[in-house]
Every structure is written in C-alpha cells, then in structure tokens.
Design brief:
- Chain C: InterPro entries: AAA+_ATPase, ABC_transporter-like_ATP-bd, ABC_transporter-like_CS, ABC_transpr_MalK-like, ABC_transpr_MalK/UgpC-like, Mo/tungstate-bd_C_term_dom, NA-bd_OB-fold, OB_MalK-like.
- Chain C: This is Sugar ABC transporter ATPase.
- Chain C: It comes from Salinisphaera japonica YTM-1.
- Chain C: Keywords: ATP-binding, Nucleotide-binding, Transport.
- Chain C: Pfam families: ABC_tran (PF00005), OB_MalK (PF17912), TOBE (PF03459).
- The complex is a heterotrimer of chains A (294), B (306) and C (366).
- By secondary structure, chain A is mostly helical.
- Chain A folds into two domains: 68 residues, no CATH class; 215 residues, MetI-like (MetI-like fold).
- With 306 residues, chain B is an all-alpha fold.
- Chain B contains 13 helices and no strands.
- The longest helix of chain B is centred in the N-terminal third of the chain and has 39 residues.
- In chain C, helix 2 packs across helix 3, helix 2 packs parallel to helix 4 and helix 3 packs across helix 4.
- Chain C folds into two domains: 230 residues, P-loop containing nucleotide triphosphate hydrolases (Rossmann fold); 119 residues, Nucleic acid-binding proteins (OB fold (Dihydrolipoamide Acetyltransferase, E2P), Beta Barrel), CATH 2.40.50.
- The relative contact order of chain C is 0.11.
- Chain C is 26% helix and 33% strand.
- Chain C has a six-stranded mixed β-sheet with strand order 6-7-8-3-9-10, sandwiched between helices.
- Classes of the chains: A mainly alpha (294), B mainly alpha (306), C alpha+beta (366).
- The interface between A and C is medium-sized, with 17 and 25 residues.
- The complex binds adenosine-5'-diphosphate and magnesium ion (MG).
Chain lengths: 294, 306, 366
C-alpha cells in the first residue's frame, strides 16, 4: 500500500498538497471544536459565559463548574452532583465487562475448537441477534427484572449489559480463534490436556489482543449506555449518562449553568476518552470487527 | 473382545466431561440467547398483538394496536423525522467519510494523529454529544452569538427551538459523531485495493480523478454496503442523542420511533403500542439488512461457481 | 501382539465417505508409512488412531485393547504435526514438558526428561526460546522432542517434513530414521511424498480415494504393484503404461509394440502368458519402469526403433522421452550412451519385469 501512495495516486503538484493538508486540518478543527468548547466552558464562570465569546479562553480560570458538577449540581430532585452516579456506572460497568468478556472467550473457544452438531446454528442465531434493536427487549426485560427483584438496581443493569454484551464478545472471539490453527488444540489433547486446561494453558495465553478488544469495546458500550439506564432504573440507581441528562435538563433555578453542564459532560466522557487515547488501536479493531460482523 | 477400555474408576467421569463440557460451556449463553433475545422478541411481538396497556395482559387483539398506531399523528411525525434524519445522516456521513478517507490516503504525514482526532467522537456517549451540541447550537449564547460578535448581527440560528428545523440540528450532531468512523471504514477499504490495478490504469493514461471515479470508488462497494447497513441501523435505534439534544422537542417535533416506543411503553402506560412500535423498528432493521444478506448469499454462490 | 490393529474401519463426514474398510495390523517396532495424494484420508485415519476423530465403523485396538471410545489422553501415543503446532506462548522447555505436566508428572522428573530429550535432539541451547524465535527445522525438532518426552508406545507423524525446504527435508528424514532405529518404537508416518515413503518405511500403505490400495514392503510395492494406481504413484520418473494387443495363444504370447517405424513383437515369459491367458483379455496395459526400457544391445531381435523427442540428463541417469504405441514413454540410459534429440534409437523392454493391468478395472492381471 505504501508503494501505491508513493508513486501512484498522490502525484499532484505542491499546490494540491497544500490544499489536501488544508482540508484535512479543517476537518480536524471541526472534530476538535466541540471538545475545545466543552473544556474551556467548563472552566469559565457564568459571567464569562453570558458576556463573552464562545471560543475565548477562560479568564479567570474557575473550578466552580467542576466542583458543582461533581458534588452539588441538581440531577432531578436531589442536588448531590454526579459523583454518586459515577460510582454507580463503575459498579455495573466493571462486572458486566468482565462477565461478558469471559463468556465471550469461552463461547468463541467452543464455537471454533469444539464444534458439534448445532454449534453453527447457535452462532448464526447469535449473529442475527446482534442486529435486533434493543427496543425489542425493553418491555419483557422490565417485567423479568421486576419478577426477580433486580429492577431499579445496579445488579439489574449488570445482568442486562452482560447478557446483551455476550453476543458481541462471542463474535469478536470467534473470529479471532478461527484463525488459530486447530492443530494447536489437537496437540494439547494428545498431550493429555482437558477441555479446560487446553483453554487455560494454550488458548487463553495467546488471547490477550482479542480480550483487550472485548474489554475496551464493552467498556465503551456499557459506560456510554443511556437506554437501559433510563428504562430500568430510577433516582438513586441511575447511571451517569442518565444523571448527566437530568443535570443538563433540570433547570430548577431557571438559569442555565453551562459551565456545570460542560464539566459534567467531561466527567461522563472522561473514562471512555482515556481508554480511547490509551488503547485506540484496540478500539479501532473492535469497531471494524463490529462493523463487518462475522 | 469386549470393550476392555482402561477402566480405572476416574476415566468414565473424565470421558463424560470431555464429551459434555464443551456443550455445557455454551449452555449459559445459549439459554440467555434463547430467553433474552429470541424469547423476548416473541414476547414483544405477542404484546403488540394484545390489549396490554398499563399492565401487560394476554387478551388477543389481532392487529388493533397497529391500527391505532397508524392513526396517531405522533407516530407519523416520528416516522417522517426518522426518514429525514436517516437519509441526511447516512448521506452526509458517507460523503464526509469518503472525502476525508481519500484525502487521508494521499500519503499524509500525520495520518495517525488525524485519524485519532477524527475518530474520538465515537468514544463519547451520545448523551455527551447531545449536551455539547446543545450548548454550541444554543440560540442566544452559542455559535449565533459568536457570529453576531464578528459583526454579522442579522445572523440567526435558532434550529434547536424551531420545530421545523430542530431535526436538522440532530443531524448535525449525529454526523459529527459518526463521520470519523465512516472515514476509518473507507480508509481501510482504500488500503485493501490492489495497487497494481491503479498503476495499470495510470499507465493506460487515466487521470487521477478518473482513476478514482471509475476504478477506486466502484471497488469500495462492499465498504459502502457495510457502512450503509451500519448507519441505517444506528439511525433507526437513535434515542440518546435526541433526548439529550432536544428532549424530543420542541413539542413532538423531533420525536423518532425509539422515543415513541419508550414514551408509550413506559411513561404513558400503552404497552401494546410501545410493543408495536418496537416490532416495526425491528422490521425496519431487517428490511435494511435484507439487501446485504441477499448480496452476501449471491456472492457466496458466485464464489463457488468460480 | 500387534501394537496397532485397524479392523474394517470406515469414516464418514456427514454423508461423504472418506475412508472405506481399512485393515492394517502393525507389529512391535514397525515403521509404517501411509502415503497417498492430498485428500485421500491419511490425516483422518491418523486422527482416528489418535482419538481426535470418532470412528464411524470398525475397531481400532492399541496394545490389544479397543480404544474406539478412549480419549487421546487415555491412549499411549504421541503425535507430530505438519505445522509443528508448538504452543506459541511457551518456551521450548515448557512445550516439551507440557504433556508430562498434564499427566501429573513431578517437576523434577519433568526436568530430567527435558534434559534427556533435548540432548538426544541437540536442542539444549534452545530450551529458553519461544517458538517464534526458532527456524523451521528447529521447530520441527522441538515438535519431535515434545512427542519423545512422553515415551509413548506409538508415534504418529502427519507430514512432519512437508513444510521444510528440500535440503533440510532430506537431513531430517535421515534423522527420523536414526531416531526410529534407536528407539525401536512403532511409528505411523503420513506423507504424500513417495520418496519419503520408500526411504523410511518398513511397510507402506498406499492410499487412494479412501481405500488402502496396497500394503507391503517398499520392494513389494515397487516391484509388484497391486494395481495401476499404485504402480503409477510409486517411482520417479513414473512407470510407463502402454496399451497393447496380445497375439498368440497361452504358452506362446507376444505383445505388439510400435515405435517410430515398424511393429515389434515381444515374446512374454511363460509365467506371464499363463496368467494373461487365464484373464482372457486381448487388449491390456503393459507397465514398464523407465529403468526396464533401455537402449538395446546391437543386433537385438526384439528392439523397438523409437525417435527420441527430448533428452533429459539428471546426472547419474539420462532420461529419453519418446513414444510407443502413440503413448509418451520414458526410457533410461547411461549419460555416456545418451543419443541426441531427433535420433532414432532401438529400445529394449525387460519383459521379465513388465507388469500387466486390465484396461478398464486397472487391476493387476500379470
Ligand atoms: N472435519 C471434516 N468435515 C468434512 N470433511 C472432512 C473433514 N476433515 C476432512 N474432510 C475431508 O476428508 C477427506 C480426507 O481428508 P484428509 O484426511 O485431511 O486428507 P489427507 O490428509 O490425506 O490430505 C478430504 O476430502 C477432506 O475434505
Ligand atoms: Mg493431511
């Protein structure tokens, strides 16, 4: 591919190069602008916001917005900021990510290395299932969570996210394990390894890349979820995304405090943004795997 | 010779485990799949065929909920909004994505950085995206005020509070979120094209735009396919962004079927109608998938012939 | 008692039958080759012996006990795979001792075994490397080491050398032969390479289309092929097949062969003519190996005059390509006596060594 761009398509004159770079930078500005505005606004005072320029840097630099967003802003009826909801999100995201990844790896292993009559059908059903809009599951799931006493709870959200996450992690892992030669598993079986020890000693140690993809993909999906959060929880049990929406759309005092809104938005976005920056490579791989589906 | 297998007591158990453990390992996920996906699909479809309102019940009502649904203005507002939103969202994402991908494919020095910047919005929650754009598009303090400060005081940008225009504001935010992803898809597609074909075309004297129009873009067909499928199903499911950006308002002007389903199913105690809306959403996704499935099957068959 | 006994074994995948009624008994310490073209079912048979595939019909016994339902772990076997199948996350030491670890062998004993095996295969320096840091030949050595560590009753090899380059392949072939002589353990060795089969095996099973076509020593297979398939598969350059007419009656039969010009008549040995007569057909396929089709001594009566199309020197021998009965054939001659292309040469057939096949069934008839 490098050879192509070298002496193939990109041959135009230097003016064209300047134009290309200019357009690309313009696009970068377009993507970055909201982030910039979000950051600067969060450090402004209300006075600066109503009086000043959208793109101006904060002067003076104020942490009020952040403090309020974290600990005292109103999200509906109570006014304790986002911190409680942040920990709510942590509390169901972490176990749901781990559970769905673990089951995804196990399923992928069985579906590629221990195929049996019917295993392809199970995989096909799973693949189709990933396309069904979640709206199809909301009404029955609300009933079931109520019946088993998990409605309006962090445990309930853990269950929901684990269940619907497994389809994706299974898909990722299956596609990864398909490329691992079957002979490796055969060799392990001849060496006397059981179903579990083959997984434990042979498959798992070479699965790090795909487990990373699963963890990062699931983390992003589950942390960012709004639909399940808003449908299956209320008040205290809300995840941070729902709390942020409430914070922004609760105008009890009548004045919009955009600095608080923006600080809240950043607090909500920070975990996934950090993951994206640290492990963007795996994020991209998860996306393309999710896009191509099978 | 009778089955004189090594009969140390532990072996039958081991053998039994060897045989059944792989299947047992799939059981939890298999059961979850059957109950929580296919069972729930069946359950929701069933609910849409009953008189369920505040509480679910099992009184069969045929297609009555659908009849009611089709008589509701608010449903048609949702559907039309989805159509406007979907078409613009898909078209703009494809256009921006393809354009940026082609630019990025010109041996750009900082490509890695640019790609990272283009893609980060996808890592954000749609609620965050909604909140940010709500601020940017705010008629009194956002971009409008900025343009006023530049001296163009006649400029007015009130889409967020204008019922006729609010859905286009949603499009702006949604396109910002997803176009970097489409760029990445197209870029991967461009990198997969056999460079010798392009060289051959250039040796034959084709100009650069011609090479793109008649060789490169047509060979990106599969990428177009998967991008469209993906964007369409994202559009049909869109909920968070609209809630955060407009709350469905002003009035009902930015309702989409996902909001309709949520509101009728959970706030207004119209479970049957909510279930009917959900079922139609699934049908829409299935319809969008159909061309891909057909193309896929056809491709497989042709592949076998060759 | 047979180490391995395969009785009436068949295998079907879905509704395609890939193995049909296989019968092989293997003696203590024997080196058995399964040879055949790709897709003929060699690996499937090997996997069934190993317990990696189920047996559809028939029975396999190891050391006298049926293992039809036994898992690989319960069979005292070890296997070496074509693509090495080394565990990429483990270093060489851990690869070799993995089988022992899985069987609960104590750490100290494992260490001793690894040392012994590494010494035998001269891979002591590699013990701490990962498979990715090894060359192809080294990897194959480690894979063999992994099999040796377990000290099994039977070794299975599935095309272990087909991934190596030509020179290394010959070296490793010799090494495997030496290994077998040293260990005196029974080995089943799968290959599609007939030279490997001939050089390594005590006995060879030639497989084709899911069946064992012939089971015998290399000499038997070479000199006395059971059918046209086996005759053509073993030997390089391949045996010449010439369709020809039989004339005369039992006790005095000849074949008609036409080269460049006139027809020559070759009288056949009496043992051959009797068997041909018993069969009855007048048209048969005669099989002659290139080394039995050589330039005739001067004045020989039964020579066939042939126009040489291509002369192909290989070093020790020179091969001559020509036609007999309008079919391409290969003859062999000494490099010093090689004609030029275009020359007409009188060729003689060693009729004592010629074999005959039925035209349609391709079965051996004489
Ligand atoms: N798991 C399987 N399912 C269906 N067919 C198979 C399977 N494994 C092998 N086969 C078929 O069985 C035949 C024999 O395969 P194999 O034993 O691998 O051949 P060889 O090792 O001689 O090249 C081939 O036609 C192959 O396609
Ligand atoms: Mg094979």
């Amino acid at each position: 591919m490098a050879t192509r761009t070298e002496d193939g398509v990109a041959r135009g004159g230097s003016l064209a190069r300047v134009l290309v770079y200019g357009l690309l930078l313009l696009a970068a500005a377009y993507f970055l602008l909201p982030l910039y505005v979000m950051l600067t606004t969060s450090f402004k005072t209300l006075g600066q916001i109503s009086g000043g320029n959208l793109f101006a840097l904060p002067a003076p630099f104020s942490l009020t917005g952040w403090q309020q967003a974290w600990s005292s802003a109103c999200t509906g009826s109570d006014c304790t900021g986002l911190q409680h909801y942040f920990w709510n999100s942590v509390a169901f995201t972490v176990p749901a990510v781990l559970l769905s990844t673990a089951f995804g790896a196990l399923n992928g292993y069985v579906l590629t290395k221990w195929r049996f009559k019917g295993s392809e059908i199970i995989f096909g059903l799973l693949l189709v299932g990933t396309f069904v809009p979640f709206q199809m599951f909301l009404l029955p799931m609300a009933r079931v969570l109520g019946m088993i006493g998990l409605d309006n709870s962090v445990a309930g959200l853990t269950l929901v996210h684990s269940v619907y996450g497994v389809a994706f992690t299974t898909l990722f892992c299956r596609n990864y394990y398909v490329a691992i030669p079957d002979e490796l598993v055969k060799a392990a079986r001849i060496d006397g390894a059981s179903f579990i020890s083959t997984f434990r000693y042979v498959i798992l140690p070479i699965s790090t890349p795909i487990l990373m993809v699963c963890v990062i993909w699931q983390f992003t999906q589950i942390w960012n979820d709004f639909l399940f959060g808003v449908v299956f929880t209320s008040g205290d049990a809300h995840p941070i995304t729902v709390a942020l929406n409430n914070l922004v759309n609760t105008s009890s005092t009548g004045i919009k405090r955009y600095n608080v809104d923006m600080a809240g938005a950043i607090i909500t976005a920070l975990p996934t943004l950090v993951v994206y920056i640290v492990a963007g490579r795996y994020f991209m791989r998860g996306l393309t795997a999710g896009a191509v589906k099978g | 010779m009778a089955d004189s297998s090594p009969s140390s007591g532990a072996m039958p158990i081991r053998r039994w485990l060897d045989r059944w453990l792989p299947k047992l390992a799939l059981v939890p996920s298999g059961v979850a799949l059957l109950v929580f996906v296919y069972g729930f699909i069946g359950w929701t479809i069933w609910l849409s065929l009953t008189t369920s309102s505040l509480l679910p019940n099992n009184t069969f009502a045929g297609l009555r909920q659908y009849e009611v649904l089709f008589k509701l203005d608010i449903w048609w507002v949702s559907v039309i909004n989805l159509a406007i939103f979907g078409v613009l969202y898909v078209a703009l994402c494809l256009a921006i994505g393809l354009f940026l991908a082609i630019l990025l494919d010109q041996k750009i020095r900082a490509e890695g950085w640019l790609r990272t910047i283009y893609l980060y919005p996808l890592a954000l929650s749609l609620v965050v995206t909604g909140v940010v754009w709500k601020w940017l598009l705010n008629p009194s303090l956002g971009l409008e005020q900025f343009v006023h400060a530049l001296g163009w005081t006649g400029f007015s940008f009130d889409w967020l509070i204008n019922p006729d225009m609010a859905i286009y504001a949603v499009v702006i935010a949604a396109v910002w979120q997803a176009s970097g992803f489409v760029t990445a898809l197209f870029l991967a597609g461009l990198r997969g094209i056999d460079s010798s074909i392009i060289k051959a075309a250039q040796i034959d004297g084709a100009s650069l735009p011609r090479v793109y129009l008649s060789i490169i873009i047509p060979s990106l067909r599969p990428v177009f396919f998967s991008a469209i499928i993906l964007l369409v199903s994202l559009a049909i499911k869109s909920f968070d962004l609209v809630i955060a950006l407009t709350g469905g308002g002003p009035g009902y002007s930015t309702w989409v079927p996902a909001i309709f389903m949520y509101d009728f199913g959970f706030n207004r105690g119209q479970i049957g109608l909510g279930a009917a809306a959900a079922t139609l959403m699934m049908a829409a996704v299935a319809l969008a998938m159909l061309p891909m499935l057909i193309a896929e099957l056809k491709g497989r068959r042709d592949g076998h012939k060759n | 008692m047979a180490v391995l006994n395969i009785e009436n074994v068949s295998k079907t995948f879905g509704d395609t039958r890939v193995l049909e009624d296989i019968n092989i008994a293997m003696a203590e310490g024997e080196f058995l080759i399964l040879v055949g073209p790709s897709g003929c079912g060699k690996s499937t048979l090997l996997n069934m012996i190993a317990g990696l595939e189920t047996i559809t019909e028939g029975q396999i016994t190891l050391d006298g006990r049926s293992v039809n339902t036994a898992s690989p772990r319960e069979r005292n076997i070890a296997m070496v795979f074509q693509f090495y199948a080394l565990y990429p996350n483990m270093n060489v030491r851990r690869n070799i001792e993995f089988g022992l670890k899985m069987r609960g062998v104590a750490k100290q004993e494992r260490g001793a075994t690894v040392e012994r095996v590494a010494k035998m295969l001269q891979i002591e320096d590699l013990l701490n490397r990962k498979p990715a840091q090894l060359s192809g030949g080294q990897r194959q050595r480690v894979a063999i080491g992994r099999a040796l560590a377990r000290d099994p009753a039977l070794f299975l090899f599935d095309e272990p050398l087909s991934n190596l380059d030509a020179k290394l392949r010959v070296e490793m072939r010799t090494e495997i032969k030496q290994l077998h002589q040293r260990l005196a353990t029974a080995m089943v060795y799968v290959t599609h390479d007939q030279i490997e089969a001939m050089t390594l095996g005590d006995r060879i099973a030639v497989m084709h289309a899911g069946r064992v076509q012939q089971l015998g020593t290399p000499r038997e297979i070479y000199d006395d092929p059971a059918n046209r398939y086996v005759a053509g598969f073993i030997g390089s350059p391949a045996m010449n097949f010439i369709e020809c007419e039989l004339i005369g009656e039992a006790g005095d039969t000849a074949v008609c062969l036409t080269g460049a010009t006139d027809e020559a008549r070759l009288a056949l040995p009496s043992a051959t003519t009797e068997r041909l007569a018993a069969h009855g057909a007048r048209r048969v396929v005669m099989g002659v190996r290139p080394e039995h089709l050589v330039p005739a001594a001067h004045g020989s009566a039964e020579a066939i005059a042939c126009r040489i199309d291509v002369v192909e020197p290989t070093g020790p021998d020179t091969y001559l390509h020509t036609e007999i009965n309008a079919e391409p054939v290969t003859a062999r001659c000494l490099p010093s006596a090689a004609p030029a292309a275009g020359d007409t040469v009188a060729l003689a057939v060693d009729v004592e060594r010629a074999v005959f096949f039925d035209c349609d069934s391709e079965a051996r008839i004489a």
